[in-house]
Design a protein that fits this description.
Blueprint lengths: L11 E8 L13 E7 L7 E11 L2 E15 L3 E13 L3 E2 L11 E13 L8 E14 L3 E2 L7 E2 L2 H4 L2 E16 L4 E16 L9 E19 L2 E19 L4 E19 L1 H4 L4 E20 L4 E23 L2 E12 L2 E5 L11 E5 L2 E14 L4 E18 L13 E21 L2 E16 L18 E10 L3 E10 L14 E14 L2 E10 L20 E2 L5 E9 L1
Parallel strand pairs: 6-10
Antiparallel strand pairs: 1-2, 3-4, 3-30, 4-5, 5-7, 7-8, 8-11, 9-29, 11-12, 12-13, 13-14, 14-15, 15-16, 16-17, 17-18, 18-21, 19-20, 21-22, 22-23, 23-24, 24-25, 25-26, 26-27, 27-28, 28-30
Length: 572
């Protein structure tokens, strides 16, 4: 669901960003990169916090609240953490459709509740056992969908220009970390995800659309460190299965899917200096052997097939590299890695809502990626300046590309298909600098050049075209200040022009400026903090879909306009 992304980063312990194909333990089957967010686990300190806030966008106000409770139950052995977030407001895009609807299409609501229980037995030093339950409920229209004019944030006819989502997602997790020795640790994890997504009836005669997804995953891996020439490493097993069921309230069609993955993965780092008589060199070797089965079936209510896909992929995805510690503050390296994504059926759930006689589908096959990367990272000027430089080249085989299909979805865009080959190459640079007096300057710049080198006979016109959603240039620049009680920051984010799908006109470049500041103070003996922020300070708008003449479709999407807000947090 698009609304799940509206979750905040409150109570986050860390964010892990990895680029390139992820062929071992994180971001499996992600070929372009992965972002993983970790939330805080319980601790043995007693703590309680409350937060209240408000934000305003396009004269629409959203109120929010949150709380966090962390408390030990048994000293140094059992601890509990509970967090809750809620927000309620109105979409910044206003529906002015005069037709009667069965719900308020402007309402937006979000809630999240998370509970964690941590057990660290004294009889097993270093062991941790964690139980976690997380539930998220969201409802609202798809963000930013408008009737066509980026200066007029309205929807004139809701039933043909937007959809409304009601989503519930529950995640249950059990994790165990047990040291077997000073050099070996076993980490086991079992998780279940249940997701329910409803597109309610809007009096179109098609009824509501109900999507149910369930996923189970079990993972067991061993972590090694300092065993002979093995500096560190991981060996793991994973089993994953998922099902998806899509129905309409009028039983016009059905979509069913099943996924089953089994994988063995490893990544090891070897100290080759003891063998070669050199200094600072580390060899990286590993990969993933995976068997992935995916079945999708689309049919009418009477069981007449519309489309089906039955794919089984057995792959070994190698990963190896060399890292060289040239100096204490300079590291150079090279990595080669491979990745893949299974194929399936691209199903347009909304096509009958927009007048199509039946569900629109497109079949696409697996996608494979091979990537080479060289990098340098380090620090200079008495550790006050850090930098990272990366150059990469990758090759897609049977790249999954939106717009490469012969079928068109309800928004007038060709669906996902495959092109036989595409390549990408580029560089990424980033830095952070302590400029003194509490100020830090940071920034990044990226250049990406993608090209379809073999579009196939059907798509021959796209020979040499760039891949969708691949802007050539991106850049960020930020300045922050950290004082004893006051902090502030300003960031500028630039994204070059791009396309949303193959064959679509170019979307203009956009530059977004955000500013924020915070002040720590006390209310009696209670610590408190006030945060103020303005996102998209200069109210930039970014059209995501244009017609052939370069003017907006009757349905387009814009980024969130200027938003002003504040939060007040107290800690006890």
């Amino acid at each position: 669901s698009a609304l799940i992304s509206r979750s905040s980063l409150r109570d986050t312990s860390s964010v892990e960003v990895a680029v390139g194909p992820q062929s071992t333990s994180t971001g499996r089957n992600a070929v372009g990169g992965t972002v993983r967010v970790y939330t805080n686990d319980p601790s043995f300190d007693r703590e309680f916090a409350l937060r209240f806030g408000a934000l305003e966008t396009n004269s629409q106000t959203t109120l929010s609240s949150a709380l966090m409770l962390n408390t030990p139950i048994v000293e140094d052995q059992l601890a509990f953490r509970f967090t809750a977030e809620n927000s309620d407001g109105t979409s910044f895009v206003r529906v002015v459709d005069p037709a009667p609807l069965r719900f308020d299409p402007n309402e937006e609501a979000y809630s999240r509740y998370r509970a964690k229980l941590l057990y660290t037995p004294l009889s097993i030093p270093g062991a941790e056992f964690l139980l976690s339950y997380d539930t998220i409920d969201t409802q609202g229209p798809l963000a930013g969908h408008i009737s066509g004019d980026p200066d007029d944030l309205t929807i004139a006819t809701f039933t043909t220009n937007s959809v409304y989502e009601i989503n519930e997602q529950d995640t249950m997790l059990a994790r165990a970390i047990v040291p077997l020795s000073n050099n070996v640790t076993v980490n086991a994890r079992a998780a279940r995800l249940e997701n329910s997504l409803l597109f309610p009836d809007v009096d179109t005669g098609f009824g509501s659309i109900d999507v149910e997804q369930k996923e189970d995953e079990v993972e067991v891996f061993l972590l090694f460190n300092d065993i002979g020439i093995l500096k560190q490493g991981v060996i793991g097993l994973i089993y994953n299965e998922a099902t998806e069921r899509q129905r309409t309230s009028l039983d016009l069609y059905s979509v069913d899917g099943e996924i089953e993955n089994r994988a063995l993965y490893t990544e090891l780092e070897f100290d080759v200096d003891s063998v070669l008589g050199t200094n600072g060199r580390t060899l990286i070797a590993g990969g993933r052997y995976e068997v992935a089965d995916r079945v999708s079936y689309v049919a009418t209510a009477g069981g007449v097939p519309i489309a089906s896909s039955d794919l089984s992929v057995e792959e070994f995805l190698p990963k190896f590299g060399l890292r060289y510690e040239a100096r204490d503050n300079l590291t150079l390296g090279y990595t080669y890695s491979e990745g893949f994504r299974p194929g399936g059926v691209d199903v347009d759930l909304l096509a009958p809502l927009f007048g199509a006689p039946t569900v629109v589908t497109s079949l696409f096959g697996p996608e494979f990626l091979k990537q080479h990367e060289i990098y340098a990272r380090g620090r200079a000027f008495d550790d006050r300046v850090g930098f990272t430089a990366t150059a990469f080249h990758y090759t897609y085989e049977d790249a999954q590309v939106q717009g490469a299909s012969a079928t068109i979805d309800s928004f007038g865009v060709y669906q996902f298909g495959n092109v036989p080959e595409a390549i990408g190459r580029g560089i990424e640079l980033s830095f952070d600098a302590d400029v003194g007096s509490g100020f830090t300057l940071c920034g990044s710049a990226g250049y990406l050049d993608t090209e379809i080198t073999d579009p196939g006979a059907t798509l021959a016109a796209f020979q040499g075209a760039s891949l969708p959603r691949a802007p050539k240039r991106t850049a960020t620049l930020g300045l922050s200040y950290e004082g004893r009680k006051f902090d502030a920051r300003a960031t500028v984010n630039f994204v070059n022009s791009q396309t949303s799908a193959l064959g679509q006109p170019i979307i203009d470049s956009s530059t977004i400026v955000d500013v924020s500041g915070g002040y720590d103070f006390e209310i009696g003996n209670t610590d408190a903090r006030l945060d103020l922020f303005v996102t998209n300070l200069f109210d930039a708008r970014d059209l995501t879909r244009l017609d052939a003449a370069g003017t907006p479709f009757s349905q387009t999407a814009v980024i969130r306009p200027r938003t002003i807000g504040f939060t007040v947090t107290t800690r006890f």
